[in-house]
Amino acid sequence: APPDIYTGTTSSAASDVYKRQVLFTGDTNEQLRQAGRALATYFAEIVRFLTYNSETKPFPFGADWPSADD
Fold it and tell me: How many Cβ atoms sit within 10 Å of the Cβ of residue 21?
């Protein structure tokens, strides 16, 4: 299957977990926010590599998993 199917499924699942967290507790979860930032950075790294805007291969083919601080 094309990578965009996995990207959409992963981001949708992460979004659903975060929405439920906020709905049931009324507060945000910093760990989920950090995971979301790391996931967004990872997706951006993939796009940069696939569009020849970066020579660095994304995780797991070259770079480490991005941190939320990247």
Answer: 16
